[in-house]
Amino acid sequence: MKFFVDTADVDAIRDLADTGLVDGVTTNPSLIAKSGRDFVEVVKEICDIVDGPISAEVTATAYDEMVAEGRKLAKIHDNITVKVPLTRDGLKTCKSLSEEGTMVNVTLCFSANQALLAAKAGATFISPFVGRLDDIAMDGMQLISDIVEVYDNYPALMTEVLVASVRSPMHVLEAAKMGADVCTLPPDVLLALFNHPLTDKGLEAFLADWQKTGQSIL
Ligand code: G3P
User: Which pLDDT tens digit goes with each residue over 96-116?
Assistant: First the structure.
């Protein structure tokens, strides 16, 4: 499974990229607004930090403008993945940009039928929002299961399932069990994956016993 970081906070991205375990970054208009920074500038900086797909979302809603914005964003860096919403104009834009060789991440996906349309439109990634379904007492991970099942029936479909709106390590575990291709994680969720109290306790005991030997390796 690939791990993307879901933020426009370059300090958090730099810190997590240092682990060598970050495969890409996703942003959206809300995350860009939260950064308080110029959109193009912060996306350029992110491209310099992480060598992988960097999602930057269009904000137009009509086809012609979406394509124009997507083409401008794609010029920022070869790793730019243009994000478009799962609307009719968004999928029409996806088809046009993907045919030009631009990576496209179709976002705001909430049904397997939507995901099937996005794959037919040539999406590089589909972003189902699991947390927002959970938030309204629906089963977000069932959507992932449905999409993976549908996509597996059609090997010619190359779209990768990018699990988004992730709220906890449990979402990551379930997504991995289902065979999702990517999880995009808020920094705190990615950091939480490292942690287990028994690891901390066990290491403390190992080091305490080692200390008693009076030895050193170097
Ligand atoms: O990449 C999409 C993600 O940022 C949405 O997450 O927590 O706003 O549902 P959230």
Answer: 999 999 999 999 999 999 999
* Cβ–ligand 1 contact at 6 (below 6 Å): yes
**Three-class DSSP category at 7:** coil
Rounded to the nearest angstrom, the distance between the alpha carbon of 63 and the centre of ligand 1 is 24
169 close to 189: Cβ distance less than 8 angstroms: yes
- Tell me the pTM: 0.96
- pLDDT digits over 25-45, tens only? 999 999 999 999 999 999 999
Residues 6+ apart with CB under 8 A from 126: 105, 106, 109, 115, 118, 119, 147, 159, 160, 161, 162
Angle, CA 88 vertex, CA 82 and CA 90 arms, to 5°: 10
DSSP state of 136: T
Could you identify the atom of ligand 1 that is nearest to the CA of residue 184? 1
- In this structure, the residue with its CA closest to atom 7 of ligand 1 is 165
Ligand 1 proximity of 169 Cβ (cutoff 6 Å)? no
Residue 83 appears among annotated catalytic residues: yes
Chain segment 174-192, per-residue pLDDT in tens: 999 999 999 999 999 999 9
Distance CA 181, CA 81 (A): 16
Q: Is 184 in the pocket of ligand 1 (CB under 6 A)?
A: yes
Atom number, ligand 1, closest to the C-alpha of residue 135: 9
Q: How far is the CA of 35 from the centre of ligand 1 (A)?
A: 15
Report the distance separating Cα 184 and Cα 164, nearest Å: 5
